[in-house]
Specification:
The structure is a homodimer. The first copy, chain A, has about 525 residues and is α/β, with parallel strands linked by helices. Chain A is built from 16 helices and 14 strands. The first copy, chain A, folds into three domains: about 110 residues, Arc Repressor Mutant, subunit A (Orthogonal Bundle), CATH 1.10.10; about 240 residues, Aspartate Aminotransferase, domain 2; about 110 residues, Aspartate Aminotransferase, domain 1 (Alpha-Beta Complex), CATH 3.90.1150.10. The first copy, chain A, has an eight-stranded mixed sheet with strand order 3-10-9-8-7-4-5-6, sandwiched between helices. In chain A, strands 11-12-14-13 form a four-stranded antiparallel sheet, with helices on one face. A two-stranded antiparallel ribbon of chain A has the order 1-2. In chain A, helix 7 packs across helix 13 and helix 9 packs parallel to helix 10. At the A-B interface, helix 1, helix 5, helix 6, helix 7 and helix 8 of A face helix 1, helix 5, helix 6, helix 7 and helix 8 of B.
């Protein structure tokens, strides 16, 4: 591992040496330089084989006489810490490391010379109980995106050149104070452009001041949970529902209560235990794809009012609707100031952008902005500024339209590929919106078998049952189709279709007779 | 508020209209267009006075015959929703808004037409109890940086042109997958460069794989608290200590226990209640400026081992030491794998960058990386990549050296300005490192009086007593000197000196005799 220019490594060493040399208590200069270098060679912090700067340069950098430097270097060569190679210079010798040997005397500079390679011994790890639950929602150690990864947008279709041009321009223009700590709730131009977009396209009722820019929707969930709930409070979550939000609420110490989703969305029945927080995806339920009906929305708002609970409306991908009217946000129906509307740019632009937003009820604007500035800090103002132009100049709506066509096409490819299975009884969700389809399966055995076969073929499949809080959940697969090319989708879809048909045939031998 | 190009606003409206028009259930096309436009005019989402596109363009964008469009527009003009101005085009009329009028029928498209200006009524806000405590650590609603803001670096000295060049290059080079969800723990090149830097300059013992890049040190604290503690667990915090870390631990539901800091650092005495987490700033205690002695460090490590606790070492500004050896990190002394070393680029580069890191014990690498990918997501890989080059090419160490000189100079200006007060008995901290000095005051009355006078003169002063968990705390002022120019520091320092002398004179009338 040699990622540093040896220049940078030497800079640091010289720098540290220069400071040590200012300490008059530690003897003559030549001796101090000798000790400082020896220490670092022993500790492996000057890599074996690396070339030292010339004595002339060292003398200049350390503000020492050249003879002082030469005396130290000669001593080190004599003792074997350095080697001279004729015509090439002075090099660090390849020595066995002396683990911990220099720690005993205990002076700070000698503490600093412990071998870098002596990693502390590993110990049995004891996570917290919420930490352990958290990991249950977290990707496996080797998880990586694949053809069917839900929620991954078409990165290959993102207008990179345009975006880079905007970024360059806004980098150049950025006022110096944007480098500092900010607590405005985000770049004003972005909040204004976003406000117009949300009003026009999502029927969200807000002023720009109500918008808080956060580093991704997850940060929005976290802020809300911490500011509005205490450990032990109850949160209603959709069953099935989004793991990211559930992970945040677990992390906040909340008690999760699963509320079933049917084909009209979250169903508030009479005997549910009172919540403090309610998480919903009314525009396009995640992962089932259901749109919450007006009746259910009104019932939910009424329940929130009755319980004095807050509603977190997670509107993650409603930009992508196919041949359907845009659905007005729940927030737009809320006269009680109980809805916090959370949005993200991860789907419409790209996940690595790490920008999302929360539209806050008036009463929460000041506390949320202050708590966010304290807990998370604000930043990325240049990116926010570039994004504001991207929206206001119309690139955003154009990109949404293009992606809508692209995803419609990709969904059609997936449906085509799965058509033989569908003819044989495989059920798919309606797919009138969004970036994924759900394939409902008959049993958990099939779900597990398909996931296992997927691992063999390097095709990651997301089992629907893991989206349920209460086992066993309903069996199925959540099939993202937005992030892969039509060819990849057709190929992986064809494979999945064959696997499903083969499993079906194996489980119903009579059908083949 | 008209930040959008009217082009963008129209794009969205046309877009939504186009989708509505695909629904054959809602009558003839001309009627549907008429209703769609009327709805949006009533709702104020087409601003009064804004010009409509030509009927030709509308027809093209909506894929309608021009006569269909003309029929709809003529009807709207006839009803007074639109106005034609000779030679200028067709404009949206200025109508009174019909609040809620169109909600009654309850179809989704009519829900969408609620007036944007009808903000939900505000209600009495009920924060959680931890939320209320959190706000106690949060900046006031009108807080903004001033001459003495602690922790603000010299933004005017940041090498903007160089950084922008690096950013442009890395933007251009970024692989497409960096746009997506990542779970590698950060860009490998950055973790490698950082690892070398930490080993060489901070005596941290680690491999690049142990480094987790986070969006600021605060995110590191949050991750640690959630993964390693449960609500109700106890955390030791330094008294006085850093509000940002305390806010994170409060947010995580922890019970904070203040452990006093004296002139050797945090003092572990026998009867302290067992913690699960310990937060320390051993290199340069925040805010007192004390360097923790080797004896205290070893005692702390022993206590952590005995209690089975984790230590969070917050090394926030130790790059800036004046005429002193760099102090080896506590992490480098830890053989038990109990120390999590948290660092930030907010001080060395700039706060708006939002990048920090945690060096994890081996046993925590996998769980922390997975939990972080779930809770916070990774991102900003382009910035990380640019930063890797900034470090590896030596710009980082050069910038640190320049800033060290700059801050030494700025501290000297502040000392000069306060010299008359110091001669008269004002006590200042040693200031051998970092970006702020502490002025110790004799009583809380003086502290409050100076802060109040500061507000009058638009000079923000940070009262030391607010850094204490347990009131009343020790009176004093935390005086950042890194973020303002020498002239500003001299001026504000001179003002402060006079104020202090005046208060002193007023409280000791005999002294003037």
């Amino acid at each position: 591992m040699e990622p540093l220019s040896s220049q940078a490594a030497l800079d640091w060493v010289i720098d540290a040496l220069a400071m040590e040399l200012t300490d008059p208590a530690s003897g003559p200069l030549s001796r101090r330089l000798y000790l400082g270098l020896r220490e670092r060679i022993q500790a492996g912090r000057l890599a074996p084989g690396s070339r030292l700067p010339s004595s002339r340069r060292l003398a200049r950098e350390l503000c020492l006489g050249r003879n002082t430097v030469l005396a130290a270097l000669e001593q080190l060569v004599a003792e074997g810490f350095l080697e001279t190679r004729p015509g090439a210079g002075t090099f660090v010798a390849d020595l066995p490391r002396l683990a911990g040997a220099s720690l005993e005397s205990g002076t700070p500079s000698e503490q600093a010379s412990m071998p870098a390679s002596a990693a502390p011994k590993t110990r049995e790890v004891s996570l917290s109980s919420r930490g352990t639950r958290l990991l249950g929602y977290s990707p496996g150690p080797n998880a990586r995106p694949g053809v069917f990864t839900p929620g991954l947008p078409a990165l290959d279709r993102f207008p990179q050149a345009l975006w880079q041009r905007l970024m360059r321009r806004h980098l150049h223009r950025a006022p110096t104070e944007w480098l500092g700590y900010q607590a405005q709730g985000g770049v004003p131009a972005l909040r204004e452009a976003l406000c117009d977009y949300l009003r026009l396209s999502r029927s969200v009722r807000c002023r720009p001041e109500q918008i808080l820019i956060v580093q991704g929707a997850q940060q929005g969930f976290e802020l809300i949970a911490r500011l509005l709930t205490d450990p032990g409070d109850r949160a209603w979550v959709e069953e099935p529902g989004y793991g990211g939000a559930k992970a945040c609420f677990e992390a906040a110490g909340l008690e999760l209560h699963a509320v079933p989703v049917d084909d009209e969305g979250l169903r508030v029945v009479a005997d549910l235990p009172a919540p403090r927080l309610i998480q919903v995806t009314p525009s396009h339920q995640y992962p089932s794809g259901v749109t919450m009906t007006l009746g259910r929305r009104l019932a939910l708002l009424e329940a929130a009012e009755r319980h004095g609970a807050w509603i977190v409306e997670d509107d993650y991908d409603s930009e992508f609707r196919y041949g359907q009217r845009p659905i007005a946000a729940l927030q737009g129906l809320d006269d009680g100031g109980r809805v916090l509307y959370v949005g993200t740019f991860s789907k419409v632009l790209y996940p690595g952008l790490r920008l999302g937003y929360v539209v806050l009820p008036e009463a929460l604007v000041d506390p949320c902005r202050r708590a966010n500035a304290r807990l998370h800090r604000e930043g990325q103002y240049v990116v926010q500024s570039a994004l504001a132009e991207f929206i206001a100049a119309g690139h955003f709506s154009r990109h949404v339209r293009r992606m809508r066509d692209c995803y419609r096409e990709r969904q059609a490819r997936l449906r085509d590929a799965l058509a033989p299975a569908v003819s044989a009884g495989l059920k798919l969700s309606e797919g009138q919106a969004g970036m994924h389809l759900v394939a409902w399966l008959d049993d958990h055995t099939t779900e597990a078998a398909l996931v296992a076969r997927g691992i063999e073929h390097d095709i990651g499949l997301s089992p629907l049952s893991t989206y349920y809080l209460t086992p066993p959940g309903r069996p199925g697969l959540v099939l993202g189709y937005a992030g892969a090319s039509e060819e990849e989708i057709a190929r992986a879809g064809g494979w999945l279709c064959q696997e499903w048909l083969a499993l079906r045939a194996a489980s119903e031998p009579d059908a083949r007779v």
